[in-house]
Amino acid sequence: MNGLLDDFKGAFSKPNNGLIQIILINVIVFLVLILLRVILSISEVPEVYSTITNQLMIPPLIRNFIYKPWTVFTYFFTHEEIFHILFNMLFLYWFGKLVDEYLGNRRLINLYILGGLAGGIIYLLIYNLIPYYQVRSSFPGMIGASAAVYAVVVGAATLMPNYTFFLFLLGPVRIKYIAAFYVILSFAQSIGSNAGGNIAHLGGALLGFIFVKQLKKGTDLGQPLTNVAESIRKLFSRKPAMKVTYHRRDVNKASYNPNSYTPNQDEIDAILDKISRSGYESLTKEEKQKLFRASQKN
């Protein structure tokens, strides 16, 4: 048991490990809810479990949502069904790896969170503004990371539309077709029994598309989230003891900041040569990010 806890602690303390951390949070919440459901059912107080889950799911009606606004965040970290979380986390891992490699850890986290928020907001707007859905608002609410995952899936497909996955029985398929298939499927099912969930999928997908398109134009929609996260980190980080040191400034040595550094033409040419020799997959994570930053300047 201690070894398992150490593994969890290591995953959360490891820098630039946002994808695994998001998956772990979803899995931990899922396992805790399973344990609570079993314990409370045996204790013959299942209504307590319902009360707990109602505090995590986002309700369809705004008049109920205003009393628990935190659910616009908690719903996309909460699952109750094994296949629901399994497929969500598999898709998040496959497509999230691409976003992480090309855009970096922080932007992947921002894309997931913004996708979840967009899905929740679209869900609330549709259910409160369109009469067709208002008569279908009797259920307690929505949970699941699907909207956030759709943002990552569509974001990856917008970023690298011709990247290929090898699918069982189908062979090589470009990810833009995978993303398009699931978006069309969600749209077709937006009038079915899971209308709310599919509407949220579409909201997340739209956010993923806009996020990457704006990023290519030089606008990072996730920067406010980055600023908030950095402020929180500084608030809880230990302040080092004051120490005065003197360094000789070396004007010939430039520092490399992965968030602000702009690669020069020689570096880009070298990366393009490497792609022509060994393919895109041979690039390191840093080289992929340099190539993306160069594309933003063009």
Give the structure's gist in a few sentences.
The chain is mainly α and 298 residues long.
List keywords for this structure.
mainly alpha, 3% strand, Rhomboid-like fold, 2 domains, two-stranded antiparallel sheet, 298 residues
How would you explain this protein's 3D organization?
- It is a single chain.
- The protein is mostly helical.
- The protein folds into 2 domains: 207 residues, Rhomboid-like fold; 34 residues.
- Helices cover 66% and strands 3% of the residues.
- The chain has 14 helices and 2 strands.
- It has a two-stranded antiparallel ribbon with strand order 1-2.
- Strand 1 and strand 2 form a beta hairpin.
- The radius of gyration is 22 Å and the shape is globular.
- The chain starts with a helix and ends with a helix.
- About 3% of the residues have low confidence.
Radius of gyration: 22 Å
- Name the CATH class of the largest domain: Mainly Alpha
Strand content: under 5%
Q: How many beta-strand segments?
A: 2
Transmembrane segments: 20-40, 72-96, 108-127, 139-159, 165-185
Membrane topology: Multi-pass membrane protein
GO molecular function: peptidase activity
Domain Peptidase S54 rhomboid: 69-212
